[in-house]
Amino acid sequence: MEDPGIEHKMAQMRQSAARIRETMFISGSKSWIDSEVTVAYLEALTDTLLGDGGLEFQPESRLFAVSEPLMNAVEASASFDELLTALETELNTPAGQEALEFLELSEYPLTPAPGEV
Fold it and tell me: Which superkingdom heads the taxonomic lineage of this protein's source (predicted)?
């Protein structure tokens, strides 16, 4: 049996994934997200957390690593608009690129932040 703390955290992550899917994908609101990588990441992450993605992560620490960009963005944001901007920033870090690689989305290269050319 898994550690109860890990089981609780996984349940929270799955619940968050279900809310993201409902908010963004079922309602059709993903069309106004400017960043293609952000949409691809959220789709792959929610599919994986909800068991629809076909990817399995053992140990669970990999799944937590894949979720880290979203969790960091949530902590740094006060609104949904801020969340999307923060998530795009997180996905452009080495940890974000690693998460994209784990989710088999490595075709989205690290892009420089504005002013870092």
Answer: Bacteria
